[in-house]
Amino acid sequence: xxxxxxxxxxxxxxxxxxxxxxxxxxxxxxxxxxxxxxxxxxxxxxxxxxxxxxxxxxxxxxxxxxxxxxxxxxxxxxxxxxxxxxxxxxxxxxxxxxxxxxxxxxxxxxxxxxxxxxxxxxxxxxxxxxxxxxxxxxxxxxxxxxxxxxxxxxxxxxxxxxxxxxxxxxxxxxxxxxxxxxxxxxxxxxxxxxxxxxxxxxxxxxxxxxxxxxxxxxxxxxxxxxxxxxxxxxxxxxxxxxxxxxxxxxxxxxxxxxxxxxxxxxxxxxxxxxxxxxxxxxxxxxxxxxxxxxxxxxxxxxxxxxxxxxxxxxxxxxxxxxxxxxxxxxxxxxxxxxxxxxxxxxxxxxxxxxxxxxxxxxxxxxxxxxxxxxxxxxxxxxxxxxxxxxxxxxxxxxxxxxxxxxxxxxxxxxxxxxxxxxxxxxxxxxxxxxxxxxxxxxxxxxxxxxxxxxxxxxxxxxxxxxxxxxxxxxxxxxxxxxxxxxxxxxxxxxxxxxxxxxxxxxxxxxxxxxxxxxxxxxxxxxxxxxxxxxxxxxxxxxxxxxxxxxxxxxxxxx
Length: 558
Prior knowledge:
The protein is of the alpha/beta class. The chain has three domains: 93-206; 246-407, no CATH class; 409-547, no CATH class. The chain is built from 18 helices and 16 strands.
């Protein structure tokens, strides 16, 4: 009996100890799991929003071109396409009515004498109220900002009005300008109303006059007079920032990248590398030295040759970059550096840290006190690509500042002009042909699926007849889309070539940047403008997924 009780007690003790052991193990596992999760949460940093993983794109930029994957140069994306703006709810009829009621309640009817005579006074604030009310209903996809006071039009019943606006599909916060002519009538209750509205930039009396442009020095060089079609944008400031005094230069901290293997590569490659350097400068809290002289890759040129000496400001918004990042132009920087070393004894020369390999990480340079960190890219390709600096562990610390790189405002003004001439009421189709249509091994159906007859049949099912139809394309033959003209009001980029011709504002302003020499409206600019107009279409039809069954990147890549 005693032996039986002793055995029972021993079994119970073992069972209790086993339960305690299991409990301790489970608790330890829980604590360890929480610790691991906490470490991950603290150390994790999200990747760049456009290019989600650096290694695949490193492989893409460094691999040979015999792979089936081809970089799509028919669509150009920059920071304003990647950084999402605050979402705006669509404007409803009730919201329009509430806004109109506020406008109407802020003004009184026309005095009875003026109402009876039908006399129009364009400076009367009630005229502007009528125009605002009309615009709210006519252009629901436009955000209106400040209006200017109306001025007399060409007739006694006409007023010209100018305002600043932004299309709701615009992903930057830039403003554009329109001026239109309105025929004004009077309602039965003695209020002004818009009887007829003119088209884009029809209100010539409301546009501002600008003097004839001169050369960079202000004397001696005259350029073609500004066209009436494009209003000069006085908000563009492409001036190169100055470091000021020698003391300011010496007190600064700079990150200087010498030219590497990225030069004359594709624009996507250029942006990927440029933003790596700019991101490292931000991480190190230094001013980035920017070389404004670019090389446009052969893929964007009809001659199929690389073109050097292109100005960064032709393609990107330099003013916005200056606002978002600390930068200095390379020529200005080198002059100040040389001047300092020339004017000071050897012991007081500028401290320079030379870095000869991308394997020296930004983290290793974080505490460096040198005035200039000079990264030199003299190794053979692909070791001399700028973006190699941001690979590996550096990718967790250096974030590419996509928000700082926008398309050129001058190019965007052309986009706005084209869209405005179609009264912002158009559909768009993106038709990719060119080399891809010829490569039957990679895109076997693309040529036939984008033939004129095929386009007519397919677009009938997607776009209403007689709509404005903008065609963004790399097809070189202008008359290729003539069969569509029997169903649609067809618009192509070349229909607007006066916007960059030798009487245009774009031509005049880019010539100033190029020391008075004309600038070619090159293949990259065409793609950038085509892309942005396409994005503003109400109905958008893509080549891949809509017009052809082929995969975008070649066979077996869908």
